[in-house]
Write a structure and sequence with these properties.
By secondary structure, the protein is mainly alpha-helical. The protein has one domain. The protein contains 7 helices and no strands. Helix 2 packs across helix 3 (31-41), helix 2 (9-24) runs parallel beside helix 4 (49-62) and helix 3 (31-41) packs across helix 6 (87-106). The protein is globular and about 35 Å long.
């Protein structure tokens, strides 16, 4: 990636998520899809990029075992391809803090069923 591209907020967050993601799986991610989703969801944080990265780092650290166990199960019984995207970690954080806003924003661009499958895989319910 060139230097200008690497300064974009979504790219910075992607790189931060990617560091954690590869602790859990070796699946190659779809970078274009990741950047689309991160760009869509970033406004939900209402923070600067550094604060978002720090928050996500903290979230992953405090949920590391749970996330590891989820990915391990999904490696064998994949219920959603989104679990093998770095932004699944971001979505997991947002499911805990503001599920309604996440769903509303997600539904503007992507099918709700995809988010629901990921949500269930991450241990959250839309009920």
């Amino acid at each position: 990636m060139n230097a200008e591209l690497e300064q974009r907020p979504a790219v910075k967050i992607y790189k931060a998520l990617e560091r954690h993601y590869y602790k859990f799986t070796a699946h190659a991610a779809d970078t274009d899809l990741s950047l689309q989703i991160i760009n869509l969801l970033l406004p939900l944080y209402q923070q600067d990029v550094t604060a978002v990265i720090n928050r996500l780092d903290s979230y992953v650290k405090s949920h590391e075992q749970m996330l590891h166990d989820i990915v391990l199960v999904q490696e064998e019984y994949a219920t959603t391809a989104l679990i093998f995207q770095p932004e699944a970690l971001m979505i997991s954080d947002l499911l805990e803090c503001d599920q309604l806003a996440l769903r509303q924003l997600w539904n503007q661009r992507f099918p709700e069923q995809e988010l629901e499958r990921l949500s269930v895989a991450l241990g959250h319910s839309f009920d």
